[in-house]
Amino acid sequence: MSRTLGAHLGLVFVFLYAPILMLMVLSFNSAGLPTVWTGVSLRWYARLLDSPDILKAASNSLIVAVTSAAIATLLGTLLALGVERRRVSAAADALLFAPMIIPDVVLAIALLSFFTLLKFTLGLHSIILAHVVFNIAFVCAVVRARLKNFDWSLLEVSADLGANASTTFLKVTLPLIAPAVLAGALLAFTLSVDEFIIAYFTAGAGQASTTLPMKIYAMIRFGVTPEINAMATIVMFLSFCLVLVSQRLDRNALTGRKS
Amino acid sequence: MKWWKKSAQVALSVAVLVLAGAAQAADKIVISNWDGYMPKDLLERFKADTGIEAELSVHATNEEIMGKVTAGGGKGYDVLFVSSPFAEALNKLGLAAPVDHSKIPNIKNLYPEAMQLQHDPGNTYSVPYTWGTTGICYRSDLVKTEPQSWNDLLAPPEDVKGKETMLSTDRWLMAAALLAMGKSVNATDPETLDAAKAKLIEAKRNLLAYDDTVFYQKLVSGEAVVTHAWDGWCNYGIAENGAIKYVIPKEGSDLWVDTMVITAASENKDAAHKFIDYVLGVDNGKWVVENIMYKTPNKAGMEAIDKSLFEKYPNMAITPAELLKYEQLRDLGEGQKAFSKTVTEILAAK
Amino acid sequence: MALKDRSLLLVLPGFLWLGLFMVLPCAIIFAMAFFERGVYGGIDYGIVTAENFRRAFDPLYLSILLDSARIAFAATVLSILIAYPAAYAISRAKPALQPALLLLVLLPFWSNYLIRTYAWMVLLNREGVINGFLRWLGAIDQPLPMLYNEFAVILGLVYNYCPFVVLAIYAALQRLDPSYAEASRDLGAGATTTFLRITLPLTLPGIAAGAVFVFVLSIGNFITPDLLGGGRLQMVGNLIYDQFLTARDWPFGATLSMILIAVMMALLFLQALATNRAHGGRSHV
After folding, report:
1. Chain B within 8 Å of A36 (Cβ-Cβ)?
2. Quick one: which of B11, B338, C11, C55 has the most CB atoms within 10 Å?
3. How far apart are CA B247 and CA B135, in angstroms?
4. Topology given in CATH for the domain delimited by C57-282
5. End-to-end CA distance of chain B
6. Going by C-beta distance under 8 Å and a sequence separation of 6 or more, which residues neighbour residue B120?
7. B20-65, pLDDT tens digit by residue?
8. B94 φ, ψ to 5°?
9. 10 Å Cβ neighbour count for C137?
């Protein structure tokens, strides 16, 4: 059983990474076309280093994604805990799914109109506010799925044994739902880092609020140059290193705990 | 030093910095444009020459910047680069500021024809930046007969079927059929729309795909042999493969114009005017042509470029007088709803 | 119970955020459904009317909705089939490896949607990598039409959204006590029965969450149908985008959105009912 499973996982990775390898290869394409190959060149990497606007946009995206994921994970987890503990009305349930269902164009324009009405200055912070909205829904849904199998009597046992609410939460609840919370946080980060339309509408005018997707889509008219492929390749490479490093740290931590 | 003297010094320095910062902040403008549509160093040179700091905000399509400005009132933006029907709509919605020609001496660099554009005669709220036509871009080495008419695109010969693309942006999609029928590109009456719809649904059966952004690459790779294209984009294909040619079909084309508009919400209209003036200079006009292969209504710029460019890219050589023969796309006003529904029907047709 | 009262405090910040930054702004937009588009694209607040709703009940929009639902459903089913075994495999891996594996599943999606889509176009087109490879193998002699059609759209949707399903199912799988499976086998049940009767029902909430993600994200997507579908099919995402941005008819766009949301809510409600029943209600395990 585990060998077929392992093979399936392997195939899934091939499926997921096939286009990524393709775009990495294209980052060395000497032609400026993302769809036709003409020869090897490093010029896009050179151009990337020479494009402070792309690098700034990338760092903006990172700030927005990390912040909105953090806030959404916190609020979404709390929501999930509160909502699963007691029966909620269908209206509250609907509210929790609504951000996923509302078309992003609608949410984008609604928020911009709302901010304009309140004379709220736009900037990177307004994007974060907007991204938290849909991220809360996703985090909440993931954690709720986990909580459906949750043994609530554990909390009562813990209280009976004399633990107060926060100890119960930290020592009993959190460790049990940690994988779901992590999954939710990763999901929120991924959704935010690649989101374009809501970011575009709720961003302030100017480079300080431009995120990477906004920058990339704006290139459509005059050609999405392989600079972006170079950027993506670097991001992949750095993230890969991140995974390796986290593995190292994790293994040490776990060995430490086990002994 | 006595503490109060030190504090006074610090306070003074801070005050100076704040004032300087405030003064600088007063002379800052934000421009919204497509990425790569202006020289990369334009804003730096502009700051060096005028002391005004300009920041570039990018937008992907006309529709998106329109949506943003309509919902947000244009706050935060000073100059917008939008195509003419959108400039027209901005003006009708009260979101565009009047252009004061006395603050734009370089406006004399424009062709006289560019001062008489159909959407804004006299350039009262918009100043043209680039212009051109829409036609057919094709691989002359891969087609048996060279396309001459819009019908060659709408009802192609056997060897082209399944190897052609059309633009899906609503106005240009319909324009192909409207021009083929000899109608105005701004027509919105039901009979005309229905007739155009029928033609376009027929045409859809022969398409490889609708493509607004990478159709010239499909020509280069041979995936497509005939494409519906804007002239400037066709030049990108020509640059990669000399067998690619551009033709304006015999029934005509539309004259598209990309313009610069100052927002009504701008707090630095003077600085915005200075920017437009700078863009209309000879050097920048020349850059547009040489780097993005678009035609500009900047007479001084066009005359300054190397004429060999006209041989490589024949569509650049068209004269303003010829351009003005073609109709411009105008905002459709009341007719927009019926028009949009027709386009949806075409795009949704199986 | 003190813990139950606390739950009100827990949900307050989240609901407040949603109320302020979603309900209120959307209410403003949805109110527009009762007005008409101004001549040049603004809103004409002069007349209150239900005309937009009349316009919305047109076979054209219904067919677009049905097509979108069909494609989104296909993408959902395929995503679950691909994601479930993958999530299962990850949850069975060494605990130290699991976060890394999850990250690896998500990594491709930290690049940009557009360039991933372009990469697929290079892979799938007539003269592309996959066709080239298959021809070299001798498996086919005519190129397969894998691009600018529904197949490509579904592929694109599955590709971009199945990692989210992996995440959702993984999150639910975690709780699975291996002793249940052991007990089942001790009692004589085969591996398939164990899976169908014990494992699957327990992980149903995760599957349901993942399914919702894919379905909802697919139906609102407008880039994949445009690029991978060659613009040949209109999905609900394109339709709503067009109404708000191209036609600049916010009232009509608001109307269509409200109808879409109502339909989706109904589907979600049905899905929640079905999940609860299959899952054995809100029982404690």
Report:
1. yes
2. C11
3. 6
4. MetI-like fold (1.10.3720)
5. 85
6. B84, B87, B88, B91, B126, B259
7. 444 444 589 999 999 888 888 899 999 999 999 999 999 999 999 9
8. 75, 20
9. 8
